[in-house]
Design a protein that fits this description.
With 374 residues, the protein is of the alpha/beta class. Helices cover 36% and strands 23% of the residues. Helix 7 packs across helix 11 and helix 8 (281-291) runs antiparallel to helix 9.
Length: 374
């Protein structure tokens, strides 16, 4: 492989290649074997930016009028769920001059509208399809056709670690890639996946959306608020990014449902909530309690708590639960301020909860929230 590196957060990181590049390489190697009887140890592709990429082959074999080949996915220093996975292609000669591409074992199939691939089609994105088709066309010539089946033996199991189920992609992984190269910044890929999910919801006609920082928020929205999970998108730690994406896509209403330990950071104006970026949970909590007039001795006791759950027990025992509506309102106001300079400006409501105490506060009566989101 052509080794390239980037510098990120002070580290030298190795680039990798996408499942789309692997599929194109495997299909090309199988085509070379089928049409030209050439067994290759590596094969060179042309990327969408017209740069060459040389990938090593894991295997190639021919059986009559069918050839197969495989490439091991290398994510570089951005090792995602598909890193180390064998991506394979089966190529057969066709009586037509067309090149037809489909997915086999371990490649997901689209079951919902809103993605760039039609319902019923294999989850092989448009750019990988183009890479596969163009690479094989160069090998077989203009007057020959081929049937290409991309398959991933471990794909069904690996897909459980991806967002495919939420996107309505069943049975396996997706064959992805826009540049053919994986740039090792996992957060960017994660953000891109969330954007794809939001765009799909928008195309499906959703005009309002529930945002949750993670599984706890999703579970609370489904089990306590009776909201269908189709209306919920997990935004992870990327609160600010996702809010701006929701605004870009012109959603009209947002309901943010989250654990106090995450959303209290937003109350302090922190929109990237991963602990590596910021962790001012206790400082924000204590500052707001101080504004309520809580005695210094109690503030020090709460500040010494290791978690917001532990702090919550002290707050409940002391009778200061009125802090929670204040914090919920501050989360709402911070989010509104973030989006105020652009239009459209969605209506935002917030629900705060904790694992032990359950619902803590909401910016709108809970019955009204439940009714609005049925």
């Amino acid at each position: 492989m052509n080794r390239e590196y980037i510098s990120y957060n002070g580290k030298k990181l190795r680039k990798g290649y996408t499942t789309g590049s692997c599929a194109a390489a495997a299909a090309s190697a199988a085509a070379m074997l089928l049409w030209h009887d050439q067994y290759l140890e590596e094969i060179t592709l042309t990327l969408p930016n017209n740069q060459p990429l040389t990938l090593p082959l894991a295997y190639a074999e021919k059986n009559g009028d069918v050839a197969t080949a495989g490439v091991i996915k290398d994510g570089g220093d951005d090792a995602d769920a598909t890193h180390g996975t064998l991506i394979c292609a089966k190529v057969e000669k066709s009586i037509s001059q067309k090149i037809r591409i489909d997915g086999g074992e371990g490649v997901g199939r689209v079951t919902e509208n809103g993605l760039p691939i039609a319902v019923g089609e294999a989850a092989i994105n448009p750019i990988p399809r183009k890479m596969i088709s163009e690479s094989v066309r160069k090998i077989v010539g203009d007057d020959q056709g081929a049937v290409i089946t991309i398959y991933v033996p471990e794909g069904a199991q690996i897909a459980k670690q991806t967002m495919n189920a939420r996107l309505g992609i069943k049975g396996g992984i997706s064959i992805l890639g826009t540049t053919g190269i994986v740039t090792p910044m996992s957060e960017e890929g994660w953000k891109q996946a969330i954007s794809i999910e939001l765009e799909m919801k928008c195309k499906q006609g959703f005009r309002k959306i529930v945002l949750a920082p993670g599984n706890y928020g999703v579970d609370f929205a489904v089990n306590q608020l009776d909201i269908h999970d189709a209306a919920i998108v997990s935004m992870s730690n990327f609160v600010g990014y996702v809010l701006k994406e929701v605004q870009r896509l012109a959603f009209e209403e947002i309901l943010i449902v989250g654990h106090l330990g995450k959303l209290i950071k937003v109350a302090g104006g922190i929109f990237s909530t991963h602990s590596k970026d910021a962790d001012a949970r206790m400082e924000i909590l204590v500052a707001n309690l101080a504004l309520m007039g809580v005695p210094l001795t109690k503030l020090k006791e709460i500040a010494a708590a290791n978690t917001t759950e532990a702090a919550g027990e002290l707050i409940m025992a002391s009778g200061y639960q009125q802090i929670y509506p204040i914090l919920a309102e501050k989360v709402k106001q911070r989010c509104c301020q973030l989006l105020k300079h652009r239009k459209p400006q969605p209506v935002i409501e917030v629900v705060l909860f904790s694992s032990k105490q359950g619902l803590l506060a909401s910016t709108k009566p809970m019955e009204a929230i439940k009714e609005a989101w049925q």
